[in-house]
Amino acid sequence: MNTWNLIGIGAWILLVLYLVFICVNIRNRHIKNIVVHGKKRTGATVVIDIVEVLIFFVVGYGLFYAAWMRPVDYTATDQVTVKHEYGPLVMQTDEDQAYYVIVQGTSSNTPSKRYTYWSEGSKIQVSSHNAIINSDASYLPMRAASYPWSKKQLKELKKLDKTSDHAYAATISAKYKDTFLNGLGMHAGKAAGSFTIIRIPNDSLINVQPLSN
Q1: pLDDT in tens, 156-212
Q2: How many CA atoms lie within 13 A of 115 on its CB side?
Q3: Bridge-based pairing state of the strands 168-176 and 191-199
Q4: Which of the residues 38, 95, 135, 175 has the least number of beta carbons within 10 Å of its own beta carbon?
Q5: What interhelical angle do 43-64 and 6-37 show, nearest 10?
Q6: Longest pairwise C-alpha distance within the chain
Q7: How far apart are CA 61 and CA 21, in angstroms?
Q8: Rg value, the chain, Cα
Q9: What is the pLDDT of residues 20-55, one digit of tens each?
Q10: Which of 188, 169, 97 is nearest to 126 (CA)?
């Protein structure tokens, strides 16, 4: 485990201890009010109760957001390391057709698809949630354009588009750096996300298969 992630683990432990403290503190103060003032609650007691509980929920939400809700910002170079990878596709053949990519549905209830392609001796599978098959005239589809591509990288894509006969995969990926914020969310050193452009000359080179089990 990356030691930076101990920050997040420690924060959650402290939050649990704080919850125990709140329960004990509220109970003791209410008992004291009964003994001293003859009533369970006073205005000051209620205010303190609310403040303590509010602090718990605010801190808890902050930790939950850092761990599970915080979106990946590919442009935040102080928080993530961004990497670009390129590789030509390898054509596959069977009795019926030649193809560069297999498309399989993953569920009858969702539009999610699984893409399988071969590049540089490796079989790679990605979800349609973070990949796109592109057979359009433009080498950079709209979904991919929202990710950071420098002028140098766009030139690389354009060059590969010509030299590979419009058959390649380009992946942009991000990895969380060792920072306090990433450690608080227990993400330090882990993969943050990725997006892949699967470039093919035309749609006839797609092998569509039934839903996978």
Answers
A1: 999 999 999 999 999 999 999 999 999 999 999 999 999 999 999 999 999 998 875
A2: 25
A3: antiparallel
A4: 95
A5: 170
A6: 89
A7: 18
A8: 26
A9: 999 999 999 888 888 877 776 778 888 999 999 999
A10: 169
